[in-house]
Design a protein that fits this description.
seven-stranded mixed sheet; two-stranded parallel sheet; 11 helices
């Protein structure tokens, strides 16, 4: 689905969501209230300016209060790998954006990520993966790091990594692998109204992060849940 189709399915009565320089912001009527939308469209890379703008949009929703849900719709490139952005401290800007989404969640604003196109690396982590729940649409292609990049970092041959990815979803790209690891909770049906499906996701939203549990149940991350629990136990004991 395109962003236009997504918004039409979410807001059949109309909306005020706009796209400027690949950055999505606005809102529309939702369940008797409003649904705020931020995001990235058109496979746009996320740099310091974009991260600031999106973070400002999230904080504006938090300041208004009222528990307005926030949908983070993503079709992005990775973070913008320019000299300017790196010198300005892009990692800190991306962290700030992720923290605003965590703050919104803590302040009672349900946060739902929706991956409908491509996304990778820091842009993916600071947006879609920073929400309480992440869902996807068929055709989405998320990755934390694509395999050619993994090959450059690990010095392993690309063909070997491609073979490993078939059995090791924890680092393999693609929507199916993200579902298996628990990063993506569910894949939505583009033939059904998205407003109803997003409402159902919000109604069933867990009180805590359950992605490690889903990863164990689905076989994509069999030991992450226990390791995380052990870290918590050790920290409490210390």
């Amino acid at each position: 689905m395109t962003l236009v189709e997504i918004l039409a399915s979410l807001f059949p009565e109309g909306h005020s969501v706009t796209v400027e320089d690949g950055l999505v912001s606005g809102e529309g009527p939702f369940r008797g209230g409003r649904l705020a939308v931020i995001g990235i469209d058109g496979d746009t890379a996320l740099g310091v300016d974009g991260a600031c703008r999106l973070a400002g949009d999230v904080l504006a929703v938090v300041r208004r209060g009222g528990g307005t849900p926030i949908l983070v719709a993503i079709d992005s490139d990775s973070q913008r790998m320019s000299r300017r952005d790196e010198l300005l401290g892009l990692n800190e800007y991306l962290a700030h954006l992720a923290k605003t989404l965590l703050l919104a969640d803590a302040q009672g604003h349900p946060t739902v990520g929706l991956i409908y196109g491509h996304s990778a690396a820091g842009a993916f982590i600071a947006t879609a993966l920073a929400t309480r729940v992440l869902v996807g649409l068929p055709g989405a292609n998320p990755s934390v790091m694509d395999l050619p990049s993994v090959a450059r970092v690990t010095k392993l041959p690309l063909d070997r990594l491609e073979a490993m990815a078939k059995d090791t979803p924890v680092f393999a790209p693609g929507l199916d692998n993200m579902v298996r690891t628990g990063a993506v909770q569910a894949v939505l049906d583009p033939d059904r109204p998205l407003a109803e499906q997003i409402a159902a996701v919000i109604d069933a939203m867990p009180a805590e992060d359950v992605r490690d549990r889903l990863g164990r149940e689905r076989g994509g991350r069999p030991v992450a849940e226990e390791i995380a629990a052990q870290v918590v136990r050790d920290a409490a004991f210390g």
